[in-house]
């Protein structure tokens, strides 16, 4: 019997698990994929929103502003990349300046600090490559960028070190109420628990509707992105938005914490909850919209494109906490933008509610910090020498584009909740994320995976399941 079962090991589920791990609770995370961070959490804008967009008093407003602050703090404690680069919202018509003022007023009500309307030549002093059609922009200095892979993995690893169990490749099929809580039926057996946390992304409405008469309805909203080479990484220094519409915050242009340039997302409502394919029409639309912000955005330097799904709930806000008729069942549903920014605050909020309901006390031996894999590409010559002295594998470069070594890949496989696939290594080390998109390093990474996991190369996958990489050797 578990105290809590969390469904979903994305950034929200991992954040909840990490906060629950600070309490004396028996906690389990169930994930249908082969690793953490395999859904929306791996395919998004990697933005830490300032919090000026959400309606004051909404869950989105409250969780975004608090989450923004917590991410800054957690990035130091859990050692994942974060940068407070500030964000801009562009207005292209004089009549739109009033909407910028409304956003500023809304942000100030939400508690966002430092908001400012910028006009005149200062626009291009801050961002020289912006379109000359920009009439004004809202500047939010507390906006930031983060690595969503590293953040999610850090939260999950820290939860695991503190006793939370993770079970992967396990799809939840049914949930029913019991006298003591809930029974969760999966394809691999059942789990009994006092409480459930529903952090299942685009499937969160399905699980809520199994136990509550208060029905939720989630529409997957697909967003397509283009990632550009590091040579384009300094094209802008801030995250550049356009005035938001009913379909979201529109196509943005932003640097990434790793030095690339990202443009996207589009917004297309879907029926298919697995529909993450990119399309020629989507990329064309993205290109057209991005050029509105900056005519010369270097889309000729695109090295890959991808798509993700946002879980848009019909009510327009996050759905957090217990339905009235399903005590002990805690929703974290409808977690679309600003979900990544809000995740740490959602984790604290739900963990507090659950611990109070179960009467759980805080641990005295909770480990609140964690160190990431040493990054050779960012290390000083002295640090590299020390790493190689401790382990010569740190001197063997496997991924030339990102300067990832054998030592880093081995570390990624051996650490808590270690990598079990090619994409698992990629998310933890960036091996394969460079210009050649794993064309050179994939075979060498597979050799290390096979050796470390004691598996035949024929058993290795790109991202779990049936995504086998080889048919014969």
UniProtKB/TrEMBL annotation:
Residues 397-451 form the BFD-like [2Fe-2S]-binding domain. CDD domains: GlpA-like_Fer2_BFD-like. Gene3D superfamilies: BFD-like [2Fe-2S]-binding domain (1.10.10.1100), D-Amino Acid Oxidase, subunit A, domain 2 (3.30.9.10), FAD/NAD(P)-binding domain (3.50.50.60). It comes from the Bacteria. Residues 3-352 form the FAD dependent oxidoreductase domain. Coiled coil: none annotated. Transmembrane segments: none annotated. It holds the Pfam family Fer2_BFD. PANTHER family: GLYCEROL 3-PHOSPHATE OXIDASE, GLYCEROL-3-PHOSPHATE DEHYDROGENASE. This is NAD(P)/FAD-dependent oxidoreductase. It comes from Blautia hansenii.
């Amino acid at each position: 019997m578990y105290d809590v079962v969390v469904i979903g090991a994305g950034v929200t589920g991992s954040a909840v698990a990490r906060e629950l791990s600070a309490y004396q609770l028996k906690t389990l995370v169930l994930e249908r994929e082969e690793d953490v961070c395999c859904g929306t959490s791996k395919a998004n804008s990697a933005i830490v929103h300032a919090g000026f967009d959400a309606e004051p008093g909404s869950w989105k407003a409250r969780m975004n502003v608090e989450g923004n602050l917590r991410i800054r703090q957690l990035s130091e404690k859990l050692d994942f990349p974060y940068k407070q680069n500030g964000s801009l919202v562009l207005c292209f018509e004089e009549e739109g300046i009033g909407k910028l003022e409304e956003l500023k007023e809304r942000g100030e009500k939400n508690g966002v600090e430092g908001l400012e309307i910028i006009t005149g030549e200062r626009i291009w002093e801050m961002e020289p490559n912006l379109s000359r059609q920009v009439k004004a922009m809202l500047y939010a200095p507390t906006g930031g960028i983060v690595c969503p892979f590293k953040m999610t993995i850090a939260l999950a690893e820290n939860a695991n070190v503190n006793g939370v169990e993770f079970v992967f490749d396990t799809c939840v099929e049914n949930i029913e109420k019991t006298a003591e809580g809930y029974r969760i039926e999966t394809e691999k057996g059942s789990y009994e628990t006092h409480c459930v946390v529903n952090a299942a992304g685009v499937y969160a409405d399905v699980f809520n509707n199994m136990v509550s008469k208060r029905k939720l309805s989630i529409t997957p909203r697909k967003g397509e992105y283009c990632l550009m080479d590091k040579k384009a990484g300094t094209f802008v220094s801030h995250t550049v938005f356009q005035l938001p519409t009913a379909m979201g915050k529109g196509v943005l242009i932003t640097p990434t914490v790793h030095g690339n340039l990202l443009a996207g997302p589009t917004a297309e409502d879907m029926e298919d909850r697995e529909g993450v394919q990119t399309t020629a029409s989507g990329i064309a639309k993205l290109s057209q919209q991005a050029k509105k912000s900056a005519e010369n955005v270097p889309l000729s330097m695109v090295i890959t494109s991808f798509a993700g799904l946002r879980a848009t709930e019909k009510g327009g806000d996050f759905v957090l906490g217990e339905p009235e008729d399903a005590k002990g069942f805690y929703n974290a549903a409808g977690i679309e933008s600003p979900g990544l920014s809000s995740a740490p605050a959602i984790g604290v909020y739900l963990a507090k509610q659950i611990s109070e309901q179960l009467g759980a006390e805080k641990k005295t031996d909770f480990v609140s910090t964690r160190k990431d894999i040493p990054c050779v590409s960012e290390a000083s010559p002295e640090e590299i020498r020390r790493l190689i002295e401790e382990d010569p594998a740190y001197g063997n470069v496997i991924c030339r584009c990102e300067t990832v070594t054998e030592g880093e890949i081995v570390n990624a496989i051996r650490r808590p909740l270690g990598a079990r696939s090619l994409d698992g290594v990629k998310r933890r080390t960036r091996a394969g994320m460079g210009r050649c998109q794993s064309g050179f390093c994939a075979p060498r990474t597979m050799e290390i995976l096979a050796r470390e996991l004691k598996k035949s190369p024929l058993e290795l996958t790109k991202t779990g399941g049936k995504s086998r990489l080889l048919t014969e050797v």
